[in-house]
């Protein structure tokens, strides 16, 4: 079997060696089976890392279409090579497409072929900026002449769209595909790349994406059985099941790797295995060079550390090996995981341990790296994967005692004893390997893997919302207190426009763990349902939950988007009427006062705030008052940048009224210190003017609330650091440390 080039296989061979993906092929064929007068529906993108079977699938699909009595009359399939070497722009691609059409039509349409060749010959005479439109017109002409839709089976679209087609050319291509029925693309890519992920780029949300999953153990068993059809000894080997399990571990569900490893099953564990593996690794060298060749240097260093040491490593261990900052390593690990290079293998406490997706790279690295020639280590791991530590130990004991000496080769006996010695010296290493082997051979990853959350997230990124909901439903049975599952569930429901159901999920998430992001999503659902006042309350809770968001805004964009724009949809009179109504109000009086405050009805708020605070102690939930106070504080922050301080003058008495209502002197003092620190941070990022701050501090100082001199001294050190007073104050170590931390926090 041609592990690298499925194009060399016959249709029968392609079908014979194709496992685990027939459902996807049949779905695509069903989409292509158009009724009379019907136009093509959806362009497809197949996503999967190298070796996952994308080329095999597209090649098989090409032959399936040509062999199908209905589809061959509807479609003109064009199967491009895996790499389009001489294509540098959209015009080159269209010219190559037209030449492939000539080849595909062959002798079946001689008149069309002859005329098309003549038209292609005119391309070089055109100006560069005219060639693309001319190419598009020829595709439309072919469709009209043949009555067949042109189907482009194109691999590595991340190279074409991502590197060869300019943004303008991408716009041209998308415009043509949207306005013409002549052409349909079924493409492949190694990952969800920027050009289809970024909403600002032309091909965002254009393709229906389908991710090729790893082969299951049953799929691998079926494929291996087909590869062993002519090898009765291997099929009847007593170690066959153990070898199959080990192949599953080594291959990681990658079809290409299964094909490579099939020879291992045919061999006994003798010197021959070393020879087979050596040959195999020579064949794998270009494969690994392709996969890892474009990785940034630091990421490749991480990959190599994972290949050289224990099978599963934590970011902290990797950081120690590389003498690299742990936070930096964690960021790299996320990128490596998102791009399919590593996976989360297991969890110990709060630490995640990662393993290579390409487990064979460990063997390749250990046998090929000049400073790491450990040809026996991979065999030791292989044996431990094959039998497990306990069985190896038992075999080694029997060999040492002279049992079975005539049955097994000297090489095998020495290997088993060496493996047992290694296991005794490296218990943690072997425990890690056993856990990893169990994980890779388990058909129930979700129950053991914390990455089920990541899997759901990947499905959401692919907009597979129904599947994600099913996964969330299963995941919540395993982790009922993981609020993130409810968040993802709610998000999917929201994207499916089932907003009330989404809100119920967000409420469950909040019950487990109040979270600013969840309040934001909840508010978005309420806004869509035109429940604007409830949405504002959700957005306020967002700020209340994460106070740093108040200080992290750029030109108040977050406030403007989430609250201010929604406020414009409210009618102040409705809330004034409800506030004074004796019954029938939708909200509590503190909540109604919150709306009136945000609508800048300060007279009403000033008149009733003390009364509301007193009443609320017995008649309203404490969170309603807390939210009102958050709204006052938010309004102060948002008015600090303004030259006009009239609103600040109205808000500060409201703030101090609330402060005085707090029963504990310590609480009063902490609240005022918190407000002051927030104000200073805003000043340091140019979001508060000095006059507004002076007015605020003067009011607090004269309002009979706990206000220490240190607050004013800190302000002097920040606003006038070169002054004599500031330099004097900074001799106080405690005060100097506060000022230093304020600057460091920006």
Structure description:
This protein is mainly alpha-helical and 746 residues long. It contains 42 helices and 7 strands. β6 (342-348) and β7 form a beta hairpin. The two termini are 60 Å apart. It comes from Candidatus Magnetobacterium bavaricum. Keywords: Repeat, TPR repeat.
Brief rundown of the structure:
Pfam families: ANAPC3, HTH_11. Among the domains are: 6-211, 3-Layer(aba) Sandwich (Rossmann fold), CATH 3.40.50; 218-441, Arc Repressor Mutant, subunit A, CATH 1.10.10.10; 666-745, no CATH class.
Structural features:
single chain; about 750 residues; mainly alpha; Rossmann fold; Arc Repressor Mutant, subunit A; 5-stranded parallel β-sheet; two-stranded antiparallel ribbon; 42 helices
Within the largest sheet, what's the order of strands? 2-3-4-1-5
CATH topology value of one domain:
Arc Repressor Mutant, subunit A
> Largest sheet, described in full?
5 strands, parallel
| Rounded average pLDDT | 84
Distance between the first and last residues' Cα? 60 Å
CATH homologous superfamily identity of one domain = Winged helix-like DNA-binding domain superfamily/Winged helix DNA-binding domain
Counted by DSSP, the helix tally is 42
Fraction of helical residues: 55-70%
Oligomeric status: single chain
The CATH level-2 architecture of one domain is identified as: Orthogonal Bundle
- How many whole angstroms does the radius of gyration measure? 34 Å
**CATH class of one domain, anyone?**
Mainly Alpha
How much beta, percentage-wise?
A: 5-15%
Give the overall shape.
globular
Total strand segments = 7
| Helix-strand makeup class | mainly alpha
Which regions are unreliable across 5 or more consecutive residues at pLDDT < 50? 443-451
């Amino acid at each position: 079997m041609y592990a690298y080039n499925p194009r060399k296989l016959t249709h029968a061979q392609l079908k014979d060696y194709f496992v685990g993906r027939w459902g996807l092929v049949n779905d695509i064929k069903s989409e292509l089976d158009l009724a009379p007068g019907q136009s093509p529906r959806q362009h497809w993108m197949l996503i999967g890392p190298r070796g996952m079977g994308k080329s095999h699938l597209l090649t098989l699909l090409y032959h399936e279409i040509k062999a199908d009595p209905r589809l061959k009359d509807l479609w003109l399939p064009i199967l491009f090579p895996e790499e389009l070497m001489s294509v540098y722009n959209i015009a080159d691609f269209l010219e190559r497409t037209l030449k492939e059409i000539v080849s595909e039509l062959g002798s079946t349409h001689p008149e069309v072929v002859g005329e098309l060749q003549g038209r292609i010959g005119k391309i070089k005479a055109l100006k560069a900026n005219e060639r693309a439109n001319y190419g598009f017109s020829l595709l439309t002409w072919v469709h009209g002449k043949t009555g067949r839709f042109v189907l482009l089976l194109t691999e590595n679209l991340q190279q074409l769209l991502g590197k060869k087609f300019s943004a303008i050319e991408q716009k041209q291509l998308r415009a043509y595909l949207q306005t013409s029925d002549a052409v349909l693309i079924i493409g492949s890519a190694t990952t969800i790349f920027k050009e289809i992920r970024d909403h600002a780029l032309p091909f965002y949300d254009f393709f229906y994406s389908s991710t090729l999953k790893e082969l299951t153990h049953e799929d691998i068993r079926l494929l291996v059985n087909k590869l062993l059809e002519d090898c009765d000894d291997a099929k009847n080997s007593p170690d066959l099941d153990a070898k199959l399990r080990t192949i599953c571990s080594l291959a990681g569900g990658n079809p290409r790797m299964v094909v490579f490893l099939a020879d291992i099953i045919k061999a006994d564990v003798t010197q021959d295995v070393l020879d087979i593996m050596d040959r195999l690794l020579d064949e794998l060298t270009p494969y690994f060079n392709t996969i890892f060749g474009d990785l940034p240097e630091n990421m490749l260093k991480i990959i190599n550390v994972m290949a050289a040491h224990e099978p599963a490593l934590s970011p902290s261990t990797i950081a120690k090996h590389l003498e690299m900052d742990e936070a930096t390593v964690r960021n790299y690990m996320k990128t490596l995981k998102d791009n399919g290079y590593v996976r989360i293998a297991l969890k110990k406490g709060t630490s995640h341990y990662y393993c290579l997706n390409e487990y064979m790279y460990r063997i390749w690295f250990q046998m090929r790296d000049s400073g790491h020639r450990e040809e026996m280590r991979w065999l030791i791991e292989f044996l431990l994967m094959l039998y497990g530590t306990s069985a190896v130990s038992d075999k080694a004991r029997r060999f040492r005692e002279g049992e079975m000496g005539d049955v097994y080769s000297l090489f095998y006996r020495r290997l088993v004893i060496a493996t047992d010695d290694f296991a005794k010296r490296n218990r943690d290493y072997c425990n890690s390997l056993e856990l990893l082997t169990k994980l890779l051979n388990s058909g129930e990853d979700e129950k053991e893997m914390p990455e089920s959350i990541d899997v759901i997230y990947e499905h959401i990124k692919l907009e597979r919302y129904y599947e994600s909901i099913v996964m969330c439903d299963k995941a919540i049975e395993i982790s009922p207190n993981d609020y993130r599952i409810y968040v993802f569930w709610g998000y999917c429901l929201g994207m499916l426009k089932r907003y009330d159901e989404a809100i119920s999920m967000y409420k469950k998430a909040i019950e487990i763990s109040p979270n600013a992001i969840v309040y934001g999503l909840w508010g978005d659902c309420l806004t869509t349902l035109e429940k604007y006042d409830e949405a504002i309350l959700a957005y306020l809770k967002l700020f209340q939950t994460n106070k740093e968001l108040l200080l992290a805004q750029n030109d108040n964009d977050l406030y403007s988007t989430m609250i201010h724009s929604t406020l414009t949809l409210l009618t102040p009179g409705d809330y004034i009427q409800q506030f004074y109504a004796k019954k029938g109000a939708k909200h509590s009086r503190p909540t109604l006062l919150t709306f009136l405050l945000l609508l800048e009805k300060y007279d009403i708020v000033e008149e009733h705030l003390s009364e509301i605070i007193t009443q609320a102690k017995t008649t309203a939930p404490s969170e309603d008052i807390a939210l009102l106070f958050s709204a006052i504080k938010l309004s102060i922050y948002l008015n600090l940048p303004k030259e006009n301080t009239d609103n600040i003058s109205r808000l500060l008495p409201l703030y101090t009224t609330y402060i005085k209502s707090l029963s504990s002197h310590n609480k009063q003092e902490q609240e005022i210190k918190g407000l002051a620190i927030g104000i200073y941070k805003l000043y340091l990022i140019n979001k508060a003017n000095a006059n507004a701050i002076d007015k605020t501090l003067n009011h607090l100082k004269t309002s009979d609330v706990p206000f220490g001199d240190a607050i004013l001294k800190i302000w002097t050190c920040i606003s006038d650091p070169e002054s004599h007073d500031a330099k004097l104050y900074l001799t106080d170590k405690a005060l100097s440390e506060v000022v230093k931390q304020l600057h460091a926090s920006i």
